[in-house]
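Structure tokens please, single chain.
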Amino acid sequence: MKLASLFQNGVILQRNTTIPVWGTSIANSMVSGELAGQFTYSRTSAAGDFMLYFPALPAGGPYTMTITCGDEKITVEDVFTGELWLASGQSNMQYKLGDDLRTDRIDPEKQLSRQQEKEFFESMDKTAVFRYFNVEHNAGCCEERYCNGAWKTIDPECSAVAAWFGLYLQKQLDIPIGLIVSSWGGTIAEAWSSASALRANPLTRNISDIYRASHLKEKTYSTTNNAIYSQTVRDLLRPDGKNEGFEKGFHRVDFDDSTWKTMKIPGSWIKQYISGNGAVWIRKQIELPKSWVGKELYLCTGGIDKQDISYFNGTEIGRTGSGASLDTYKTPREYKIPAGLNTSERALIAVRGYSCVYDGNFSGAWRLENRELGETLDICGMWLAEAELDLGKISLRRDSSTFGPGNPNTPSALFDGMIRPLLPCALAGVIWYQGESNATTIESSREYKDILKYMINDWRYHFQNPELPFIMMQIANNGFPTAYRGIAPWAHLRESQRLLCTELPGVGMATAVDIGEEDDIHPQDKQTAGYRMAAYALNKVYGFADIVPGGPELLRVANEAPGIIRIDFACAAGLRIDEEAPQSFYISTDGENFSPAEKSEVQGASVVLYHHLDTPVKCVRYAWAENPTCTLYNGDGFPASPFSADL
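Here you go.
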């Protein structure tokens, strides 16, 4: 006899609802179960499958659960009933309490993530009844019945967002809290959707057909090893070729770079609109301390996405990566600068980066080190940048030629490998932090609303709960700060998330639009993210009317009079605008060309915009960019979601 993967020692079961427990045993046999003095029975199918349904129990424990079939018995100890939430999504949900992604930038002890980790464990006072189950990654492209994982008390390996969410729930509810974490970085919503959901949605039916066709290729389906997927990706990418910038003299001290753009380092050249994927050069004149002249130095950086060749005073000092390699994008660089190259107080550093797919980034804390003197010179800030080769924005996440075992973005792969083994577990709800990987184009960002709608309805069907609460995190601000950018895919994806909440009952949203970071897609502030999700859950799911669920919610926009637009909000007690920040409300008379409102002011639960346009305004947008300025908050400090509203 074998129980489903969740039913191990230490399991947290959902209170106040029927509790399904399932597994396999001898075919056509009787199975009995006992939990907290309650008995339940089932027969096994011809294949040996069984499903037990225990009656609802209040929060409590510890209990012992016993499942018996003939002479076989399984005993599960240390069982509690409480609130059980599923936490899913991509890397910002996968990001652990103990993750240390930025050690190349500052002293780890000074990092916000480390400070929050310390605060979390100092605040957690009921460790025995606060547990999580981490679903092991599985992109084998098979319909799995079981998964690898174990119930643990919360530790640094738990999802940070989920942990903070659970902690705030436990503080209010004072009952056992369980978290099932099933997440995978860099994944699209289509991978978390079942094949039936993809087939039902006209937007995704085509990729479902393409995926089915991929089964005709023996090579693709010969193994579940990542090696085939990785090699397939590399075969599709353009390897780095001729260093044309070198031939043009981009590395030379006397090269004229006066026409180059400025770029903030660390940062992404794609998100700062320098270039798409391909080859980009950066240059900077450095003033060295007089005592450093003639000394051996070291150039130290974070990862360079994906490859680099670095120069000091016109001479190559090191390179990392080659061809179409994807392996070194996080690898910190450390290049020795011989004393013979360091001949004056003014030095030139030039770096050629090459990225064949996804982002292109010069990351980390850039510095020169004089190890003989024990001194460091910070060289972050504004550099000059020029594209050598612009390949446009390249993403392989939807490329059908990579579908198959090992590729976590294969349609339905993660549903089959990491959600199906959990069905039909009784849950309190789902928290979801995903979307960045779907925001590759404006079209894909707009499609996200319907893709997620089909996924949510399908999960509700499979979890046998048509009203299953689903709380998503609106993706954070990231990239070069911009007051307005109409063609920003991330802005359109945030709008898809916001609109979905108005269309599908039981779906809510917290926003991270003001807690992100310019040069890192992974905000360190997971505490605020978890708190905002918990606030929504406590108000909407658990009925705590005194807890504000979130920020100002758009109700309506109207032309009130010539030159005056009124925007009404719910959840707007204490509504305020940051008057010192740049204008974040933009208006348009044609729906295409936008300009900032001349003035915005709060009037009760409304914002009033003023303008002197002769033509009636047709559309208003707020905080519309990848990394927008957020100015509108309610009295509890929750930000308003970005929005685009037609009048």
